Amino acid sequence: MRVTIIADDGKVGVDGVFRAVDLSTLDANIHAVQWGGASGHIEFRDRSPEQRIADISAFQSFIDAWTAAAPPPPTLAELKSAKGAAFIAEGVTRIAAQVPDWDSLDAIKTVAGLWTSHLVADATPAQIVAKDIYRYVRDTVPAKLAALTTQGQLDAIDPSTADPFGDGTPWPT
Questions:
Q1: DSSP sequence for 65-118
Q2: Are 91 and 54 members of one domain?
Q3: Is the pTM for the entire model greater than 0.70?
Q4: Structural domain containing residue 13
Q5: How far is CA 4 from CA 21, 54, 68, in A?
Q6: What's the number of domains the chain is made of?
Q7: Is residue 89 part of a domain?
Q8: What is the distance between the alpha carbons of residues 56 and 58, in angstroms, rounded to a whole number?
Q9: What percentage of the chain carries pLDDT values higher than 70?
Q10: Same domain for 114 and 55
């Protein structure tokens, strides 16, 4: 385990992940502590020579505070939102593969707004598939995500597969 304590920043890093930690009890002359797993050193504010250390236990309270400062795991609602965003990204990619000019969510929404009044009569087969993909993302995906009750169910869904939900409601082709 690699540990870095930086007094001026009020941060502790463990294996490259830094978090804000209360360092008010750290010796005022310590600028930083570097620990490489088996040994380390202390850097001082008064420019004293670095002090080599062979034990990190004197700084364990700061490591414990780093652990306690970990963000909570995401909620199911947050995970559903992220999965919904993955579906939108996949949908945009699939639509652009059908109609290259429809390569952004804004372009797709604009076209969707014009669909009934201007495009439906002259739509190409590719445009019809693109419209169906848009409706899949807009109508089918949110309802299916809303019905999920566990992270395991959500984790089993892969937006990049032909039938992401594995239930016979595949991406339009």
A1: HHHHTPPPPPPHHHHHHHHHHHHHHHHHHHHHHH-TT--SHHHHHHHHHHIIII
A2: no
A3: no
A4: 3-68
A5: 12, 15, 16
A6: 2
A7: yes
A8: 6
A9: 97
A10: no
